[in-house]
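Obj: model holo form, ligand = pyridoxal-5'-phosphate.
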Amino acid sequence: MTRTVYVNGEYLPEHEAKVSIFDRGFLMADGVYEVTSVLGGKLIDFEGHAKRLARSLSELEIRKPMEDEALLEIHRELVARNDIDEGMIYLQITRGAPNDRDFVFPPEETEPTVVLFTQSKPGLADSPAAKEGIKVISIPDIRWGRRDIKTVQLLYPSMGKMMARAAGADDAWMVEEGAVTEGTSNNAYIVKGNTIITRQLSHEILHGITRAAVLRFAREAQMKVEERAFTIEEAQQADEAFITSASTFVMPVVEIDGAQVGQGAPGPVANRLREIYIEESRKAAI
Ligand code: PLP
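Output (holo structure tokens):
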């Protein structure tokens, strides 16, 4: 099926959508993005994604091209036009396309480039991977120092996924100064008894929208939450491990660097949090 995508004010068939070769996103990874999930044709946590987008843009001094209400309309229009029941909406905003390549930012009046497209993923909520759990390996975190900004500089995370695949695993957790920062495209957690442990917010990790929701639900369910760094060794010895992201929700991790975590199967805390997250997100979807 030919998707309808959105580019700079127009809805177009995907093969007709075009961006300039001078676009700063293309030449310099000078852009930010968001991924919002769709369940039952509705958007999960749109408000959180819109807020983080505004922050990413502001930190990079990229002009915010439209109000949240207008962005919401585009999201909804794409869901409707592409008949998305379960899946994701990808949104990217770059500093725009001046008429040449230059390290210096283009003039103020340069219009940011705005691109959105849908990804249909039937079965997103009822994922077979969530029933089995995933395997991760550890790799050094060599990304830049502002990982709290959701930029399109995804080469290293992409290489990390390939390293995981080459090692027979599903994903990689990145390690800096002996402690896990986060997964290539997700936040990382361990569980010890009734306590959920995940790294504290800082410039070192992305402030996951799913992370915020899951920690809120965990506290509401009387689980203890500790926001602190942990090592791979501590994770290997934990009762459970899991990751969160907009596209995987809560996903159990059953093996880390070849060592089985807990019973080597999804644990009760991760399973329960996944259930609560999906249920509550469906209720609040817009
Ligand atoms: N950390 C990184 C590096 C990510 O790329 C992502 C999502 O893409 C996340 C964490 C999870 O963020 P969210 O829950 O907002 O999807």
